[in-house]
Amino acid sequence: MLKIGLTGNIGSGKTLISEVFSTLGIPVYHADEESKKFLDETAVKNEVLKHFGYGVLTTGHEINRRSLASIVFTDGQALKLLNSILHPRVMRDFHKWADGHSDKAYIIQEAAIIFEAGFRSDYDYIIHVSCPKEMAIDRVIKRDKMDGHSVLRRMQFQLDDAEKSGLSDFVIRNDGSEMVIPQVLSIHKKLLEISAKRNDDIASGAVDA
Q1: Do the Cβ atoms of 129 and 13 come closer than 8 Å?
Q2: What is the CATH number of the domain that holds 122?
C-alpha cells in the first residue's frame, strides 16, 4: 500500500480533488478536519490553555477555534506552537488509520501544510493541487465569508504555489485551464501501476515489504 499526501494552499480546491479520489474507492484521511477533533481532548485542551490562555475558551469551556485562529494566524511562533501540539497526534492517528486500509493499492492524506510541517518523508508520493493566488483568495472569500486581508494572513504561512509544485511528484491544475477529473484519473492509473509493481517486487523478494 502506498501512502499519498494530497496538499495545496488554502482555496486551491484540494478537498474537492480528494472527493474525486474517494469516488474511485480510495480512502482519504482529512488531516485538517481530524486535527480539530483533537482540540476536544483534555490533554490537548490543557496544552492549548497553558500556552494561549483562557481567553480562547467559549462560555461552554470548549476551545473557541475562531479565537485561537485569530491568534495563530497573526503570529508565526504561535502557529508553530499549536502545530507542535496537534501535528504529532494527527500523524500517529493517520498511520493507525492507514494500517486499517492495508488491502488498498494506495490511501491519501489530505493536508494543507505537508512541506511546511516537515512531514514529506511520511509519504511515498505527493500530489499538489495548484491554483493561482488571486483565484484562491476569491474562492475563500466566497466560501468562508472572509475578507481578503484575513485570507492573505493565512497564506503567508504557506509555501508559494510554484514552490510546492516543484517539490511534488504530481500536480493537478485546478485553475480552469483543464478539466480536473482526467488529471485525477491519470494520476490514479499511475499510482495503481506503481503499487502493483511494488507488490510484485515484494512477492519476488526484489524489495523488502
Answers
A1: yes
A2: 3.40.50.300
